[in-house]
Amino acid sequence: MGTEGKSSEGPAEATPDGVRAGVAIHGTGNCPVVAASNAHDGPITGVNWTHAGDTHTEEFRARDPDAVEDAEGVPSASSVIDLGSERVYRYDRPDDGACACRIIEELDCPIADARAEDGVLLLTLHLPDLERLRDVVSALDGVVERVEVRYLVHGATGGDELSDRTLVDRGRLTDRQCEVLRTAYRMGYFERPRDANASAVADALDIAPSTFAEHLAAAQRKLLEETLAGN
C-alpha cells in the first residue's frame, strides 16, 4: 500500500509547562560555603558538589581569597586553581544527609545554578510544573529556617516564535544598590544625552562620586549576571 499524500511528520509536540524558579534558602546551618559567604564581599559563585562514599565535596569560585581562608567556624578550604579575578576552592565534609542541595536532587530536580551571598543559599531550578516547586519547599521544611521564592518565570506559551523571557531578581541587590539605581534612573543618568551626571546623582544621594560609581558598578554587574545567565 503506497504512502502518497500522507505526511511523514508526527503530531506536534506540546509546549512544556515548566517554570524557572529562583529560590533563596535561609538558615542552611551545615553548609560551609554559605557560612563563608558571610565574610565574602559579593556572591560566592560556581557552587557544585560530588559525593564519594561518606564524603561530600563542594567546589566554588571566590573573588576574595582572604575571606574564604580566614572564615571562622567552617572546614579548611583547599585552593585548587587561581583564575586571576577568582580562585577555585573545595571543601570536604561528611555526607550527613541534611544538605539542602542534596535533598532537592533526591526529588529528581537538578540544580541549574547555585551561589551563596550574605549567608543565603541562592538556587536556580528548572521544574516541570509548580507542583514540583511545592515539593521542594515541603522537603526543606524543618531542615532549613526559611525558603523564599524570589522569582518565577513560566516558559514560552507556544507558537512559531518562542519568547526570550528574562526576569531580573532584584533581591540580589542591597538596599543601597537599589537606591542608587533608582535615583540615577529618576534623575536621567541613563538617558542619552544624560540629564544628570555622576556628581549630580552622588550629591542627591549625599555620597562621594567614587562611592556612587562603586555602588553602580556592583549593581550593574549583578543585573548583568542574572540577565546573561546561561547565554
From TrEMBL:
It comes from Halorubrum hochstenium ATCC 700873. Pfam families: DmsR_N, HTH_10. Residues 173-225 form the HTH bat-type domain. Residues 16-154 form the DmsR-like N-terminal domain. Gene3D superfamilies: Winged helix-like DNA-binding domain superfamily/Winged helix DNA-binding domain. PANTHER family: DIMETHYL SULFOXIDE REDUCTASE TRANSCRIPTIONAL ACTIVATOR. The keyword Repressor does not apply. The keyword Cell cycle does not apply. This is DNA binding protein.
